[in-house]
Predict the 3D structure of the following.
Amino acid sequence: MNHPWQGVFPAVTTQFHQDQSLDLDATARHLEILIQSGVSGLIVCGSLGENQAMEPAEKRAVVRLAVETSRGRVPVLSGVAETGTAAACRYLQDCEQLGAGGFMVMPAMVYKADTREAVHFFRTVARASALPWMLYNNPVAYPVDITPEVFVEIADIENLVAIKESSANTRRITELRNAVGDRYQLFTGVDDLLLECAILGIDGWVAGSGIAFPKENQRLWDLTREGRWEEARLLYRWAQPLMKLDTHPHFVQYIKLLCQETGLGKEWVREPRLPIAGAERDAVLQIIRESLAKRPIIAS
């Protein structure tokens, strides 16, 4: 089964004002810059988009905004991170009405489902909308592991077209290819494993930290598609300290601070998150500023 989803699908932050209210104008500006950089799709209201800290109406407002901003130039996917199956189904249906092009579906949050429960959840959600969707497998952060064997079991779900593989185990790329071939579009979701996964054979990248340096991020992806590995290695080495900010429990705060340093957003987050402070902030800013001081020049 082939599907056109491939390339860079960045997971985008939701911008807030300092009082934690939605900043839709700033979010739209960032979305436009990402589109102009050459991305192939947009993912809003994911983990980096602080899905679970937003009210239902706010999430729908962000999806509506992204669809209006895209104007059909790239597909807009929404993260689905509800705590219950019925709420997840309602959310899919509402987003479809808003013009979303598909979804990135996480296991139901809070509850640690076993395999039977997780499969039931994904099958039920898949029936709620005919739109295509990507299954987000992140057993590191959300302790439900969808193994290659499970992807074989659910291969009959026709609108399940892609996998975001974020187990941080690069063996999974080859294991998935051996188990399911090209049945799914295979995306990596771990920034600082991008080059390793690209060598093993993936179709796309759900990028996180690269939303703060979109030209360099897109260039890195393009180099992997062209097989220009030495150039890719050099750019990857520059980006790696910034990419590693995506692998910490405070990744939302870190990436928003990075976006602030590159002029593409503000660091304000929605509670219970708080902006980082003290020695942690100083250390992250040092990483960011040292990297940006060596930022490569990417031709437009």
About this structure: Residues 7-293 form a domain with the TIM Barrel fold (CATH 3.20.20.70). The radius of gyration is 18 Å. The mean pLDDT is 96.
